[in-house]
Automatic annotation (TrEMBL):
GO terms for molecular function: 4 iron, 4 sulfur cluster binding; glutamate synthase (NADPH) activity; metal ion binding. Residues 10-39, 41-70 form the 4Fe-4S ferredoxin-type domain. Belongs to the glutamate synthase family. This is glutamate synthase (NADPH). The lineage of its organism: Bacteria, Bacillati, Bacillota, Clostridia, Eubacteriales.
Amino acid sequence: MKDIFIPAEYEVVRNPDLCIACRVCERQCSNGVHEYDKDLKKMIADSTKCVNCHRCVCMCPTHALKIVKSDDTYKINYNWPVQTMNEVFRQAATGGVLLSSMGNPTENPIYFNKILVNASQVTNPPIDPLREPMETTVYLGKKDVEIKRDARGMLVDNLPPQLKLTTPIMFSAMSYGSISYNAHEALARAAEELGIYYNTGEGGLHTDFYKYGKNTIVQVASGRFGVHEQYLKTAAAIEIKMGQGAKPGIGGHLPGMKISDDVSKTRMIPKGVDAISPAPHHDIYSIEDLRQLIYSLKEATDYKKPVIVKVAAVHNVAAIASGIARSGADIIAIDGFRGGTGAAPTRIRDNVGIPIELALAQVDERLRQEGIRENVSVVVGGSIHSSSDVVKAIALGADACYIATAAVLALGCHLCRSCHSGKCNWGIATQRPDLVKRLNPDVGKERLVNLVHAWTHEIQEMMGGMGINSIEALRGNRLMLRGIGLNETELRILGIKHAGE
Ligand code: SF4
Ligand code: SF4
């Protein structure tokens, strides 16, 4: 329903000298913004429907379009910004919770941007990554803390199952349902080609993708959607989702319009009905309960699959991680408050949780203090923007990083933050067949592979500059980091010195 109180947020600007009325924009827009007016014999636009996904701008053959932020204004009021007023109007019209998607866009600090990386000079020279081997392979899972030998002096390998990654980057959980079949195919094939992993999220695994099982992490969330023995056994690892950075403390929500035939079959739920996964797992109210689920999953998969426990970054995340490390989990995944999602209540997304940088530093510190750091690997996600964020996260103590928003950007997402509408014009966060086919999985796979290759080269260059030739030597090496513009408390939590010290 159009709310007459809410003015258009964006304005569609069409250059009449360039527009040839080809109607491409009309066909490309799933929101019905563009229309050909037969009487006027020209294209017209309803800017109130525009979500600023930029599909029309990119597809217009004559570059006749641009989308601008509307300069329509209310009286200046720093206490009541326009967006806040519009949200009140929207809730007054609908009586509902404000829904949104993708990550938290608020102005909270991004600590990765306030951390600088060291470089070697003279006595500890840099390493040339083009001429010297630079090891980016990492193994995730519990490690032995001491070398053991048998009576013949041979090394005893008691390592539990590990995940081997050629580079410390994985594609984070995105469910089939929240994203399209073609997006999933692109992620699965890219993970296979790169020697890394993608993650099913809580939506089950489409049978077409069982062939990518050795590069697949399957998720077990509170709704248990699509979980069965074959699903678990097909995967390389199993992730128990206890929490998610975009919406800590609440469950998942897939709007009914995204539950197509195939999604309903894969998730084992009815078609067209909202899929709500509960906030808690109804069998987990303590670390002991969590341990039971971890060992049930290990038992079901003959102790051959590492088990990941994913939690949202919240105030007491270090204590939670300590419990998880003692619960038998092989890997802890921590998701920061900027993490993306297909649908979340706006207030939760923008106000709950803490930044991943602070959570990671505290978790690594706590696990080290308690002497259990090698019991688990730590993977972090929640707005990893670039290769330098990966380097900084590893130096703060991570073993690897999950990326999702960067991955969907590689697939063509323009961050319009309207995934929950199911009308993604780029064929990513939609199940509408006419939209899904806009994403070519061959092209998507190639772009994901390019992105991860590019980041890996940059990681190697940065490590070389530091005089470090392996991810292992970088992990937890906070001496390589300095803060800039951070106060004493922030520096203490991050466990780094200020630039110049
Ligand atoms: S796509 Fe471009 S040229 Fe074609 S009708 Fe739209 S604005 Fe005009
Ligand atoms: S995935 Fe699609 S709907 Fe979601 S933010 Fe990106 S472009 Fe918009």
